[in-house]
Specification:
alpha/beta, 5-stranded parallel sheet, 23 helices
Length: about 525
C-alpha cells in the first residue's frame, strides 16, 4: 500500500478531493491533508508520503517552494500540482523540480483521478523494485566486500540500520562425506533463488549468496521472523523442488554484525544435520551452544566402557564373522552418543573409520558385473542428515555381507579353484571360460582379472597353454599318434588342433616332433 498526502488551502476542495475515490481500492492510503504550505511541509517530514498532490497557490509556502523542499528531503517522492488556467505557465516552472505532472483543477474528476492513481501505482511499483534491487545489490556487496567499494559506500546509509537475519540453506551432503564419495548435491541457481525471495517477500531487503549452498537474507526488523521463515521455506521448497532449510537468527543492529555472526558461528549450521531436511530453526533452537570441536577418541572417552576404538574393533570382528545383527548393534553403540549430543566432528571421526573398514573389505570382493559391490557407486544425493548417512552405512554393510557370504574367502582361493578345474576339464572340447567362471562363482571379466594379476594372461590364454603343453608332452612319447592328440587335448577336430598348435609353437605338430626327437637323438 502506497501513501499519499493532499494539500490545498480551499477546505471545500480539500474535502472534495479526499472523498473523490476509495483510495485503498486503488492501492493507496490517504495519510494526511494540509491546508497551507507550511503545514504540508511539516506533515511531509512526519509521514514521508510516497505521493504529494498539492495546490500551487497556498499561504505560508506555495506549491513550488514546497516541491523544492520535498526534493531536498527525498528525491523519490512524487509531486503532482493542482493548478488553474491562470497558473498554467507558473506551474511549468516546476518541471525543473522533477514534478511528475500537473492537473487542471476543473479536469480532476473521479475518472481522471482513478486513471492517475493507476499510472502512479505502476510507476511507484517500478521505483520500488528498482530501489529494492539497488539496495539488495549494495547490501550484498557490503556483505562480501574486503575493501570499500562504490556500491558499499552507497549502501552505508541503510547498512547501519537494524536487520533481521534469516539464513537460507540448500540441504546438501556434508563436506566430510563428499571427500569419501566424490559426489555432491548440485547447487541451486543463485539468481533463481534470489529472484523468488525478492518477488514473494517484500520484508526481505537483501538476499546475498554467502557460499555454495547458503544465502543471507536481511529483512525488516519489524517482520514476524518465524512466520516469515516458514512461509519462505514453503515457497522455496515448492518453487525450486529441492529441500531448503532456514535459520532465523533474530535482529542485529547493522549489516556488519550479521556478517560477523555468520563468520564466528559457522558451527551452528552443522546442527541441521542432526535434524530433518527442509526445516526451520528459529532463535530458540540456534541460541543453544554447539559442543566444542571434539574427537570421538579423546582421552576422556577412552576411560569409559564405551571406548569407540574398542567398539570399532568389535564391529570389525563381527563383520568378519558376517554377523549382521551384531554389526548393527555395534554401529548403534558407536553413533547414538554423538547423535544425541549433536557432536558433528565426533560423528565424522567415526564415519571416517567405518568407511575405511568397509573400503578394506571391498578390496577383497570379487567383481560381479551383474551384481557388483562398489562402496561409492550410486551414492544417493539424499545423504543430507546424520540419520540418512547412518542408514546408508548400514545398507552398505548388509550388501557387502551378502556378497561375502556367497564368495570364497580370498581371491587366491578362487584362482586355485579355477586352475584345478581347468586341469581336470581341459580334455573336454566343450569346455569354455564361461564354464570355468560359473564353476568358481564369478564373471568372465572377474576371472580374467584374477588370471592377469596372477598369471599375466587371461583365463582363455591359460587354458590354451595347458592344452598346448599337454600336446607337446604327448608328442614326445612316440607311441602317441598325432591323430589322437586333438581328442586328448580338448579339440573337436584335427584341423582346429593343428592351427592352434601352429599358432602357439610356430610349427606343425609333425615338425615339432621331428625337431624335438632329433634334438634328443643328437644329445
Amino acid at each position: 500500500m502506497f501513501t499519499i498526502m493532499l494539500a490545498d488551502d480551499n477546505l471545500f476542495a480539500l474535502e472534495h478531493y479526499s472523498n473523490l475515490v476509495n483510495w485503498r481500492q486503488y492501492g493507496f492510503e490517504l495519510i494526511a491533508t494540509a491546508e497551507d504550505g507550511l503545514e504540508a511541509l511539516e506533515k511531509f517530514y512526519r509521514f514521508q508520503p510516497d505521493v504529494v498532490i498539492t495546490d500551487i497557490q497556498m499561504p505560508g509556502m506555495n506549491g513550488i517552494d514546497l516541491a523544492a523542499k520535498i526534493r531536498e528531503q527525498n528525491q523519490s517522492t512524487i509531486v503532482i500540482f493542482l493548478s488553474s488556467y491562470d497558473e498554467f505557465d507558473y506551474a511549468r516552472s516546476a518541471l525543473n523540480l522533477s514534478v511528475q505532472e500537473y492537473i487542471l483543477k476543473h479536469e480532476l474528476s473521479q475518472e481522471t483521478l482513478i486513471h492517475k492513481l493507476t499510472d502512479l501505482k505502476r510507476l511507484l511499483k517500478k521505483k520500488e523494485q528498482q530501489m529494492r534491487s539497488f539496495q539488495s545489490n549494495c547490501l550484498s556487496s557490503y556483505l562480501k566486500m574486503t575493501e570499500p567499494s562504490i556500491e558499499a559506500a552507497s549502501a552505508h546509509s541503510f547498512s547501519e540500520k537494524p536487520f533481521c537475519l534469516i539464513v537460507v540453506e540448500q540441504d546438501h551432503m556434508p563436506e566430510r562425506l563428499v571427500r569419501h564419495v566424490n559426489r555432491q548435491v548440485t547447487p541451486l541457481n543463485s539468481r533463481q533463488l534470489k529472484s523468488v525471495i525478492l518477488e514473494y517477500f517484500p520484508d526481505v531487503f537483501c538476499c546475498s549468496h554467502y557460499d555454495t549452498y547458503r544465502w543471507l537474507c536481511l529483512c525488516s526488523p519489524d517482520c514476524q521472523m518465524t512466520e516469515l521463515s516458514h512461509r519462505m521455506k514453503q515457497v522455496l521448497n515448492s518453487t525450486l523442488n529441492v529441500p531448503i532449510s532456514l535459520f532465523a537468527f533474530g535482529v542485529f543492529s547493522n549489516v556488519e554484525e550479521c556478517k560477523n555472526f555468520c563468520l564466528d558461528h559457522s558451527d551452528i549450521f552443522l546442527k541441521r544435520y542432526f535434524e530433518n531436511t527442509g526445516i526451520v530453526m528459529d532463535i530458540s533452537f540456534t541460541s543453544s551452544v554447539m559442543p566444542e570441536k571434539s574427537s570421538a577418541f579423546s582421552p576422556e572417552s577412552s576411560r569409559k566402557n564405551n571406548d569407540p576404538l574398542t567398539v570399532i574393533e568389535a564391529f570389525s570382528q563381527e563383520f568378519q564373522r558376517l554377523h549382521y545383527e551384531n554389526c548393527l548393534a555395534k554401529l548403534d553403540q558407536l553413533f547414538l552418543p554423538v547423535i544425541l549430543s549433536a557432536d558433528y566432528p565426533a560423528f565424522f571421526d567415526l564415519i571416517d573409520l567405518i568407511l575405511e573398514k568397509l573400503e578394506n573389505c571391498e578390496k577383497s570382493v570379487i567383481r560381479y558385473p551383474e551384481d557388483s559391490f562398489l562402496l561409492y557407486e550410486d551414492v544417493p544425493e539424499q545423504l543430507l542428515s546424520v540419520h540418512q548417512i547412518l542408514k546408508w552405512i548400514k545398507e552398505k554393510v548388509s550388501s557387502l555381507m551378502q556378497i561375502m557370504k556367497t564368495q570364497p574367502q580370498t581371491q587366491s582361493d578362487v584362482l586355485e579353484k579355477a586352475i584345478r578345474f581347468i586341469y581336470k576339464q581341459y580334455t573336454n572340447p566343450l569346455l569354455s571360460i564361461d564354464d570355468v567362471a560359473q564353476h568358481v562363482g564369478i564373471s568372465v571379466n572377474g576371472l580374467n582379472n584374477l588370471f592377469k594379476k596372477s598369471q599375466n594372461e587371461t583365463a582363455g590364454r591359460f587354458l590354451t597353454r595347458v592344452r598346448m603343453e599337454k600336446a607337446a608332452h604327448l608328442l614326445l612319447e612316440m607311441e602317441n599318434k598325432i591323430s589322437d592328440l586333438p581328442q586328448k587335448t580338448g579339440y573337436s577336430s584335427a584341423s582346429y588342433f593343428t592351427r592352434a598348435f601352429q599358432k602357439y609353437y610356430g610349427m606343425s605338430p609333425t615338425e615339432y616332433r621331428t625337431q624335438k626327437v632329433g634334438q634328443k637323438d643328437h644329445e
